[in-house]
Amino acid sequence: MPEVPSVIFLQIPVETSDVEAGATDDSSSRKGPFPGARIVQWGPGAADKVATLTEGFAAVGRFDLSFDGRKILFAGRRRDESYSAILEMDIDRRTARRVTREPRRYREAVYLSPIYRFDEDRPHRLIAFTADAEPFGVPVLFTCRLDGSDVRPITHTPSAVRSPYLLSDGRIVFSLMAGGPGGASPSAVEALYTVFADGADVFPFAAPHAPPARRSMTTELPDGTVVYVESRDPDPLDGGRLVTVRRVRSLSTRRVVPGTTEGFYHSPSGFDDRTILVSYRASGAESYGIHLLDLESGRRTLLFDDPRYDDLFARVRRPRTPPAGRSTNVRSDDQPAYLYCLDVRITRDGADAAHPPSRARRVRILTAVPTLAVSKKNTAEQQERTGFASAPDPNDHGARGVALAEAPIYEDGSFYLQVPAAVPLRVETIGENGEVLQRMRSWFWVMPGESRGCIGCHEDRERTPPDRHVLALRNPPFVVPPLSSVVRRPAK
What we know:
Blueprint: E1 7-13, H1 14-20, E2 34-35, E3 38-42, E4 51-52, E5 57-65, E6 71-78, E7 85-90, E8 95-98, E9 106-117, E10 124-133, E11 138-145, E12 152-153, E13 161-166, E14 172-178, E15 189-195, E16 203-206, E17 214-220, E18 225-231, E19 241-246, E20 255-256, E21 264-270, E22 275-281, E23 289-294, E24 300-304, E25 309-316, E26 326-328, E27 337-341, E28 362-370, H2 376-386, E29 391-392, E30 399-408, E31 415-419, E32 426-430, E33 436-439, E34 451-454, E35 478-479
């Protein structure tokens, strides 16, 4: 067995996990700080003794290790406080300072690389965190500076966001839930997406249209291999089997790690080029313990297990190289956002013979609103005024899709739109008789100042675009009106 340096991990009392397993609205791993949990440090020569880092806390959650290995970032609640916060702790001094100030239900946090903004004189160190937010009441991914200022939401979707992780290229990979109330439905599909720290260029990373399962807890190895957990069987902490993809071709390089389909694996993290730290619980066992696992053979070696706790989210305490920073023109003001497509006829799905993409004449743009924000009267008024109405979204609890506009598609299959910024969006292509030819299966958004482009509709994500100046981009964009001009909230 290789020499094991100091390891930091989260311990959740087994009885807490058992209580959380009875929750029907959400998985325990999405519930933010765990009551009675603690973050501990364990290292060589310490036998089975661990040092508690979070004395005085009533609840703590998943943590992230700073790039220099000296601090941890986590969501927690002190015993003398009524709400949680994101905190940063000096590991050796055991001193914690509050980063966030606004009362929210904070869940997870990660360190980020700097953002270089054209309207600021210098870059600032950033973090990302998840916290519940309106209007949909689900976890949203935010960024802020390390002093807690400049809080900005960077995901805009009615689906729950969780399990953020910073990849080596500066993208944040996160889990996005769709299907059933809070994602608790057996038909729930949770896929991995990426976004940059400015909220731009949200993109599927793994399993966007795969069979129902939960996918989360990502880690990256030095060679660009990305490991995540895929959970299909009931487990209160969302444990499951391990899957790997390549960071550069994540949609076409899926591989199930040998030997990990039995029992439950949880929270992998890199150890060396071919070995990871991972928590494991055998079927029928009471708790998770920490193991070393060889990704080629699937062979496990037990490192630590306290049967009173689920031992999770183990990280080797060592420095790591931060990804390069990112320059951005995304701003928080009312800058317009743009969306264009080069050719809706380019597709990978296989065209329905009755509805081929070549028959597309218009593109319909929809946004999402909370179900209670749309009344029957407003729906009828919208349909009378625009010719198309809102409809419940089958994939999102408490959300309703509202059509904003229909824009023309040019003869070469292209379109160019100015769209509302930082709101959930979906696109449908419409035939000459009003029939829907293709529709998006997930929500996306475009940030203020961002120009977002698509090659086609459901196209191969790894193909290159056609080399031509499309008709739509030779003309001004079609302006899609904001939600306020389409539907009104019912009177209370």
